[in-house]
Design a protein that fits this description.
It is found in: Cell outer membrane. By secondary structure, the chain is mainly beta. It has a single domain, classed as Porin (Beta Barrel). The protein has 2 helices and 19 strands. The strands form 2 sheets. Strands 2-3-4-5-6-7-8-11-12-13-14-15-16-17-18-19 form a 16-stranded antiparallel β-barrel. Strands 9-10 form a two-stranded antiparallel sheet.
């Protein structure tokens, strides 16, 4: 009995030792530490390092919903037809939903800061007779590439909006700021920015322009005809459009001047602007433009009527959430526009804007100068209610 117990105990001990050694042979790898996203505060808030690189990335954008009514805010009846093929006013809502995605990158190099910016927009809504659609279908309007540029130091190349607008600034903080238009926008560019560091800065931009060979407009009899004065705003040779500008900025505001040469039509245009921070709550601006019309009435840099145009207005902040914005404009052809809105931040990131617009067509009935935004009326009133969630 003792011998049997001893043998059984020895066998059990051997099995236990063998099992322990077998268990020791299985080595479980330690989990590698996760590479968490690191905040990059060099270029402002919202940036983070792309894992494994020295590039800082920011992703943003907005979702927007517009409801327009009337003639100006809804572009009512601009190119609409009834069931018999005759021009008519649609007299319905203008609605549009937009999703915009933006990206920014930044990285320090031995040649300066390397930056990129992109902005892509996707729209769904009804045309209300505006644009290429002659009806009022609610459809997907496609995807547009609004910005996609690379900048190293002061050199920028890619898809941008013209420096004739971006350098001097847009015409106020209203939705319909182009009742009297102030310049062409979409273009490929080769630009150089210079910052002296003492408030002075400058830009030189070589641009391609954009647009087709012309557009159809209503003649006095209500027929659509080709409008040669709309012109082709895209260069058709190796000679680019040229834009140059200078700016002086201080705490009180800034003074800016830009000049442009349209190489397609051999026309010149220029704008000057004054911005004043009157108080902590009130900011004001006035901008004036002048352009030649020796070969064509309107071109990429002078889309306004006649030789001169002027825009002015400002913003008053009632509090951190509420602001009032106003813009008035006029040109040499006696076109006038007024736009005013109230913008209210319901919560951080969500803004509701209610705007009312007025447009006077100085050359009503002239097919070559018909203002598309007010259809067949000399005086037009409309408005837009906008909801925008920015992130």
């Amino acid at each position: 009995m003792n011998i049997k117990s001893l043998l059984l105990g020895s066998a059990a001990a051997l099995i236990a030792v063998s099992g322990a050694r077998a268990a020791d042979a299985v080595v479980v790898a330690e989990p590698e530490p996760a590479e968490y996203v690191k905040i990059c505060d060099v270029y402002g808030s919202g940036y983070f390092y792309i894992p494994g690189t020295e590039t800082c990335l920011r992703i943003g954008g907005y979702v927007r919903y517009d409801i327009g009514a009337g003639d100006v805010g809804s572009f009512d009846g601009a190119r609409a037809f009834n069931q018999f093929g005759d021009p008519k006013e649609q007299d319905t809502w203008y609605k549009n939903t937009r999703f915009t995605l933006k990206t920014w990158t930044g990285q320090e190099t031995e040649l300066g800061t390397l930056k990129t910016y992109t902005e892509t927009r996707i729209n769904f809504g009804n045309s209300n007779g505006y644009g290429d659609d002659f009806g009022n279908d609610a459809v997907n309007k496609g995807i547009t590439l609004n910005f996609a540029w690379i900048q190293l130091g002061g050199l920028r190349v890619g898809k941008d909006e013209s420096a004739f607008d971006t350098f001097i600034g847009y015409a106020g903080s209203v939705i319909n700021d182009t009742i009297v238009p102030y310049g062409g926008f979409d273009t490929n560019v080769v630009q150089y920015y210079f910052d002296a560091g003492n408030g002075f800065s400058a830009v030189l931009s070589l641009e391609e322009g954009s647009g087709d060979a012309g557009a159809a407009v209503l003649d006095g009899a209500g027929n659509y005809v080709f409008n040669a004065t709309s012109g082709n705003d895209t260069i058709d040779s190796y000679v680019p459009h040229v834009v140059g500008g200078v700016k002086y900025t201080q705490g009180w505001g800034d003074i800016i001047a830009v000049g442009a040469y349209d190489s397609t039509w051999e026309e010149w245009a220029g704008k000057v602007r004054l911005d004043v921070n009157a108080t902590n709550e009130l900011s004001l601006f006035i901008m004036a433009g002048y352009g030649t019309d020796d070969h064509i009435d309107r071109n990429f840099y002078k889309p306004w009527g006649g030789n001169w145009a002027v825009w002015g207005g400002g913003t008053y902040k009632f509090n951190e959430k509420t602001s009032f914005n106003l813009q008035a404009s006029a040109d040499d052809d006696k076109n006038y526009g007024v736009a005013a809105n109230i913008a209210y931040d319901i919560v951080p990131g969500l803004t509701v804007t209610a705007e009312v617009d007025y447009d006077h067509d100085g050359k009503f009935g002239d097919a070559d100068n018909r203002n598309w935004t007010n259809a067949d009326k000399k005086n037009s009133v409309g408005g837009i209610l906008r909801f925008q969630r920015s992130f």
